[in-house]
Write a structure and sequence with these properties.
The protein is an alpha/beta fold. The chain has seven helices and five strands; from the N terminus they run αβαββααβαβαα. A five-stranded mixed sheet has the order 3-2-4-1-5. The structure holds zinc ion.
């Protein structure tokens, strides 16, 4: 009986094998050449040329903001800060990076506070106003996203500032890290920026 069972099982196996189709499953053929992801032209970082001014020793942080407006420029924010807010020093940021509405997409505008190495008016915290370099990206990143060119140039700008001022990457912060605010908006990809700075 036991032998019979083994035999039946063996025949079953053979029968099973015989039913396997002979043709092999064809897998998609491998790509003929490696996939190369070309950087898009518009994402190429510009070669920044921050005006060479004697850099003060005080800078310790970089603070990133959004304008919370769909358009803008250094001039527009300067007017707003000077006239509407009544700040004598005008534009509170050191740099403004445009989004194509009001100034060029990714255009880095250098504020007079950077040229004169004077403190900012952007952080709402004395330490970060005195020692933080304020960069404002035009846009409302609660609703929209920064453009690829804005991001590329932001990273290029921060890198240059880090070299000039010896600011470590952990001191590159968002406005909301230091004050109760949404700035620079929930869609701002902070960790992408950090990852690129650490590369
Ligand atoms: Zn802010």
């Amino acid at each position: 009986m036991q032998r019979l069972l083994v035999l039946v099982f063996f025949v079953f196996l053979l029968g099973g094998c015989a039913e396997v189709p002979k043709e092999t499953v064809s897998l998609p053929s491998p790509a003929k050449r490696p996939l190369v992801i070309e950087p898009k032209k518009e994402e190429t970082p510009i070669v920044l040329s921050i005006p060479r001014v004697p850099v003060a020793k005080k800078w310790k942080y970089v603070v990133v903001h959004h304008s919370a407006s769909p358009s803008g420029s250094a001039d527009a924010f300067d007017y707003f800060h000077r006239v509407k807010r009544g700040w004598e020093g005008g534009l509170g940021y050191h740099f403004v990076i445009g989004n194509g509405h009001g100034s060029g997409d990714g255009q880095v505008e250098v504020g007079h506070r950077w040229l004169y190495q004077s403190h900012g008016a952007h952080a709402g915290q004395a330490e970060y106003n005195q020692r933080g370099i304020g960069i404002c990206l035009v846009g409302n990143f609660e609703e929209d996203y920064p453009s690829p060119q804005q991001m590329a140039n932001l990273v290029a700008l921060i890198r240059e500032l880090q070299q000039l001022c010896d600011v470590p990457s952990e001191n590159v912060v968002l406005h909301r890290h230091i004050r109760d605010t949404e700035c620079p908006g929930r869609n701002f990809p902070y960790y992408e920026v950090l990852a690129q700075l650490l590369r």
